[in-house]
């Protein structure tokens, strides 16, 4: 969660920083004060630099008060984030000329947003992971499959926007009107279901016909028996 600020401050290991490791954390605080914040004079940093001393937590607690940090020593993540923010502000102030020609992040974000107004424009539709993800979503949302995965993804987006946003769910919960289904939107699915039912029905008819044929054969076998008395409907002895 601190990687971006650590990178901006040229920390030697922004990706692997572990604030739960006591030694790494103490060294980090010393580095932050020595290199970026510099609130104390060099000769006053002795207690903070002595990270192996049992009194170091007290020295750190005093340091937080001296820099007016609103968080306590027990709130480690909040404390680190606040100190990093302070360091970034001081770093920018000390190097204003270095950053004066840089484009603000907000301007870059706005520019990128304008270039990518259509969020699906840069997707690689042939990527196997993309196809698997779209298919999984389609199955979950019961959206009909399509040969074009981009079309399926757009259908998923529309469904989410219309049915699954917080606003849509809230309106659905408040509404007491009967929900009407537009059959034209679901024609393909209904047609497929009808075909399946028709095939099942045909299969049942075939099974029934088979049983009828077997019964006819059995009756014919009895009639053909010379011991059968057709007038009495009984088999003679």
From TrEMBL:
Please list the GO biological process terms of this entry: positive regulation of transcription by RNA polymerase II; tRNA splicing, via endonucleolytic cleavage and ligation
Domain of life of the organism in this record?
A: Eukaryota
Quote the Pfam families the UniProt record gives: RLL
- InterPro entries the UniProt entry points to: RTRAF
Return the GO cellular component terms, semicolon-separated: centrosome; mitotic spindle; nucleoplasm; perinuclear region of cytoplasm; tRNA-splicing ligase complex
One annotated GO molecular function is:
RNA binding
Per the similarity annotation, which family is this? Belongs to the RTRAF family.
Q: Which PANTHER family match?
A: CLE
Protein name as catalogued? RNA transcription, translation and transport factor protein
State the taxonomy lineage: Eukaryota, Metazoa, Chordata, Craniata, Vertebrata
